[in-house]
Write a structure and sequence with these properties.
3 strands; 6 helices; homodimer; three-stranded antiparallel sheet; DNA-binding; Arc Repressor Mutant, subunit A
DNA sequence: ACATAATAGTTACATTTGAAACTAATTCAC
DNA sequence: GTGAATTAGTTTCAAATGTAACTATTATGT
């Protein structure tokens, strides 16, 4: 058993590598919709969630996109101000309100989705089809495992 | 050529998946050193860079850990206040200052590194050795490619 | 039925972060 | 050598974010 101190090689350290990869990808994507459409990252994610699963309550949105309720509330407020999202209070439970994209919101969503998918496609060109499937599977396993570790402490 | 609108499935969308994976890993790691040692993510990264490559200028640190100079400046200020980092102005170019961990900083660094490596090891248990090598290689390719795409626009 | 607790969502306050302006020192052009 | 442009790093101000407290409504226990 060696007692030599292990070195932390930041450039090979998985958490660090994941962080900078996610960061550069997120920034690249942000470039596509921030300028032209004036959306923040959180606003775009809310729109993406509503575009796919509406109607959703704010809590549902938060669960979908792993974002706390305050962040969702603020993003929704901004989207409502711009008329991109509509809210309707639930008749049976007036604490809840279901959210959906407005007509304008759907138009914007329909413009952004192809840009986002195109960027994803260009990114995936770094990998062959088989490599892509492999990466997706492995990253899923890492995610599930990271979540377990977090719960376990 | 299909003209059917493609759907954006957030849960399968690579940028989104990378984002939440990096986030949960980063938060888990943060739990290890934030409470016990009172460091922010950026402060810890600066310490990690200095622990491995010192002496470095603030700009060098920024390049190593992909962080802008304002963030580095603030992290270093905090670390200096706590006596964890030392600064020495360059004699030949007094704009520059070389940074290194202080004795206290080295002690703290030496305590955190094993915790970080242990977390990484536990995380990697989700994968076999071969899968790990595969994931590392593929994520490297994605990173390089993402950087190229970013430059290209 | 009534008090207590729980849930959905918002608001307020403090901290963090980012962009741009700024200071100081050095290099470059001529 | 002098003025303009660069570079290193800090400060300033505004925007974004997190935590905790808050409002309103519904559910629960007795």
């Amino acid at each position: 058993m060696s007692n030599a101190a292990q070195a932390l090689e930041l450039e090979n350290f998985l958490p660090y590598r994941l962080s900078i990869l996610a960061q550069i990808v997120s920034e690249s994507l942000h470039d596509l919709y921030a300028g032209p459409f004036g959306l923040t990252v959180t606003q775009w994610r809310v729109m993406a969630a509503l575009g796919r699963f509406a109607p959703l309550t704010a809590s549902d949105v938060g669960q979908r996109i792993v974002m706390d309720k305050v962040a969702v509330s603020r993003a929704v407020a901004g989207l409502m101000t711009r008329g991109l999202v509509e809210r309707a209070t639930d008749r049976n439970d007036r604490r809840r309100a279901s959210l959906r994209l407005s007509a304008r919101g759907r138009v914007m969503h329909a413009r952004i989705v192809p840009l986002a998918l195109d960027y994803e496609a260009r990114l995936y060109k770094a990998l062959s089809d088989e490599e892509r499937r492999s990466f997706d599977a492995l990253s899923d396993r890492l995610f599930s495992h990271a979540r377990q570790l977090r719960r376990a402490g």
